[in-house]
Amino acid sequence: MNCFRTLLIPILFFILAVPVLIAGGSANAQKSDFPVDLSHYKTLEADYAEDQGVDTNALSLWERLKVRMGVDPINLIATLLFFGAIVHTFAAGYFMKLSHQLEAEHKSNVSDQDYSYVDGKEPVNFKAKLFHFLGEVEAIFGIWVLPLLIAITCFHGWDVATGYIDSRNFTEPLFVVVIMAIAASRPVIIFSEKALSFFAQIGKGSVAAWWLSILIVAPLLGSFITEPAAMTIAALLLGQQFYQHNPSTVFKYATLGLLFVNISVGGTLTHFAAPPVLMVASKWEWDVPFMFTNFGWRATLGIIIATALYFFIFRKEFTEIQTQSDLQSADADVRSVESTPVWVIIIHLLFVVWTVFTLHHPALFIGGFLTFIAFTIATNHYQNTMSLKGPLLVGFFLAGLVTHGGLQGWWIEPVLTMLSEQMLFFGSTLLTAFNDNAAITFLASQVPAFDQNYAEDVALAKTLQYAVVAGAVTGGGLTVIANAPNPAGQSLLNRFFKDGIAPLNLFLSALIPTLIMVVVFIVIP
Length: 525
Description:
The chain is mainly α and 525 residues long. The protein is built from 26 helices and no strands.
């Protein structure tokens, strides 16, 4: 009761303050153009350059950013909050450890209590759960949306804040939730396992052959079934085939980093599967032949080289995993499980096809997903229990990233436009580590210098197009936020890492494959 009284005053203050913030900001809402259009900054920069008596092209990056920061205080605030969320992801392990400590203390104390709760439930430690949520990497960017919305409301009003949210395109987060849930179903995994076993049999079905098949074939399939679906299937199979045998921590991180990099570049054989390519394909008139001749063969070569290198480095590890696998197979329950009928597998695959086919139409693929759920209920004896926690967390993560990313264009756009071809490639790779690679390429598509229809030098424009996209997909495995499918892999494999996946270890494990992709995309002519 004392705790309730302590919280009552701030709760009442918040309830009374929110309408004031909403009403106070609504007066300016109709006048606000939020976020400021990138073209407006060009006009302001030209005015600033004229005042300084210099040409606009002579302005330094800092001068451009200073002009843009002065337009709207939210620019700087949103970027600080965005980088605060990034720092938070690196501290997620600390919050998770604290959660475990509090949970352990709670369990040791709860046995002394003589209370009864609703439906006989065990008491939950609120503080432990709070720190657990703060330690969930997939929840972090969504959590940081709250202070962002408060800041926008304070400066521009509630109507502008809600208008900004309404202007965001959340199709991709919704699509990832649906495709993850469908791709993780038992019939789809059975089909994927049988398909990959064809390649694994080349190596006599050994664990090493399975590892190679999953990390080479699955990422390339991402060009046809989309990267999120490929990531889900690959992560689930890696969990079943390798991570459950508890290999060394170094091997676990190396495999994860390699998976993220391979998935990021593996979707570039076509123009519709990789999010960073999808953002620009229509505007820059890219099609399948263009993608394969400029990106696809390079991505395939890079995936094979990187995977072969890691295979050579960890070749001794496979012997130990093979031993563990053989022992587990010998001790396994030999009771047979009724095989899944072919017609059930086919219908599941049709749901995958429908979801991919309608990926730009949420009403259609969500409707298909509801039908899919009904079908799994009707064939429940052939299904594993469907868990939506992982897909929903990943969707929440991506939605948070979309919300934050929409306010980063003010500084990303001038950074991209001031770089030469090679510097643009490396700049795009680096920026991708701290922002979704699809956002990087989308912003590039809005810059006239990158558009062959408006640029003075068409050849240079096409060169810059290649550089920014190649850099974006190359850096897509460095962090969990770098590529949209990464949170799916993180969610599915996180349980195999003590205290969760450490961002720094992920970055280091993905560094060598990333450098290999640098060579195949920018060094090889």
